Amino acid sequence: FEKLVEIPGGSGFEEKVIEFITVELKRSLPDVSVDPMGNVIGKIGKGKKSVMVCAHSDEVGMLIKYIDPKGYIYFDLNGMIDERVLLSTKVDICTDKGIYTGVVGVKNRHLLTAEDLKRTISISDIWIDVGAESAEEVKRWGIEIGDPIVFHPNFQKIGKETILTKAIDNRAGCAILIDLAEKMKSIKIDYQLFFVAATQEEVGSRGAKVAAQTLGPDMAIVIDTVPASDPITPPQQATSECGKGPVIRSMDVNALGWGTIYSKKIRQRLTHIALKNRIPHQKDIFRTWTDASTIHTSGRGIPCGGIYIPRRYSHSPVELVKWSDVERTVELLILFLKDLSS
């Protein structure tokens, strides 16, 4: 997990994450491939039925839009980010010549007027400073318009079981996928089991749609993260809590209409297994979308289940997760997948 969160992989630019996951899955699985969308697909088992377990490999980020004559870099968002979390944040620009670290600049507090303080932060008000003196210097370094930008690595353990880092969403899911493949390889199953690390979830779950269309599984389980409660968010808006176990979802939807009504049978089976094995778990309905939104409408329709890891400070430079929630997600998934063969 620590290695995964340090790898840059904004939506559409997941190459290094793909490479890492491919190598790790090949340690456990005999059949691992990468499709034209960049989805990593591993397979074990034989049988008429098939199950797809999916976690997305991308993280939110930015793309370079403009380089001004003095070398300041302007950008647009690649994924859903609150502009307020960007201020004075260290970021990495990923180029063909290497990674360049910069800081997101904003007008100095000493220079702000009372009117300035009333205005909301806009992308046009902030820039990235890489220490260059001119646009020509920036270009000599190999930094170009269209290059991806991600938050700078900052993994840290705090407290008893808490981790702070960028990209918990969804490198936690990718770490689970790798661990799940290692554990399931020695378990006899009577169906085909696909492990999918999907691309471009943060910009519309595009990779998962392609993988689902290609594989046509009989059911799918999506692993992702979910914003957890905090001291000021009303509990009816964020019902899950960090440290209380994985979240089994009933429905999600956002303003654009993307979302999923999850299979009742899968949801009930996950809940039954969690209760039977005394695995702490939570239930939710949330205003968002995940890869399930494009998987469940693929082909003739694919029943989906969702198991989500609560984490705070979503889509920011520093997210927070309790490691026990990650471990319990693995435990629940293994028992569910084993139970399908019984």
Give your account of this protein's structure:
β17 and β18 (319-322) form a beta hairpin. This protein has nine helices and 18 strands. The model has no long low-confidence stretch (mean pLDDT 96). It has 342 residues and is α+β, with helices and mostly antiparallel strands. It has helices at 2-6, 15-26, 114-118, 135-140, 168-184, 206-215, 264-276, 292-295, 323-339, and strands at 31-34, 40-44, 50-56, 61-67, 73-78, 90-95, 98-105, 127-129, 148-151, 156-158, 162-165, 192-198, 219-227, 247-253, 259-261, 282-286, 304-312, 319-322. It is globular and about 65 Å long. 26% of the residues lie in helices and 30% in strands.
Q: Structural class, from helix and strand content?
A: alpha+beta
Report the uncertain regions: none
What proportion of the residues is helical, as a percent range? Answer: 25-40%
Q: Specify the number of helices.
A: 9
Instruction: Spell the H/E element sequence.
Output: HHEEEEEEEHEHEEEHEHEEEHEHEEH
Radius of gyration: 21 Å
- The share of residues in extended strands comes to 25-35%
- What is the overall silhouette? globular
Outline the biggest β-sheet. 12 strands, mixed
Could you tell me the mean pLDDT? Answer: 96
Terminal Cα separation, in Å? 31 Å
**Overall number of strands:** 18
